[in-house]
Amino acid sequence: MADAVLLVTKNGFGKVVDPADFRQQARGGKGVTGYKVTDDSGPLAVALRVPLGQGERVLVVTAQGQAILTLVDEISTRSRTAGGVKIISLAEGDEVVSVAV
Fold it and tell me: Is 3 left (phi over 0), alpha (psi -120 to 50) or beta?
């Protein structure tokens, strides 16, 4: 898998998904589930195309200015419908606002 999709939620959870897991939709289609949203994970904040196996890093930034830099390859690869793993621990009332590769 050369490229993947990185999904990160507002509560700091995320996962890497193979783009082949998303089937093409026709016009008027209802889409497919990309992330199993729960009260713990929160809503999806960011979806990015990321390269795998190249040592790329991802920067996750919160509303209160907290930031973390981590390797993309260290984030678990999971199925479309699965929940994610904790990428960043947030302070009370904080949320993820931006992610960059």
Answer: beta
Q: Which tokens is 36 given?
A: 């199993």
C-alpha distances out from residue 18 to 7, 11, 15, 31, 40, Å: 11, 22, 10, 16, 23
| Interval 44-67: pLDDT, tens | 999 999 999 898 999 999 999 999
pLDDT grade for 1, boundaries at 50, 70 and 90? low
Length, in residues, of the chain: 101
Are 26 and 101 contacting, i.e. CB atoms less than 8 angstroms apart? no
Distance, CA of 65 to CA of 46 (rounded, Å): 17
Residue 41 φ then ψ, to 5°: -75, -35
User: Which of 71, 81, 79 has its CA nearest to residue 101?
Assistant: 71
Residue 6 contacts residue 35 (beta carbons within 8 Å): no
Instruction: Sort residue 72 into left (φ over 0), alpha (ψ -120 to 50) or beta.
Output: alpha
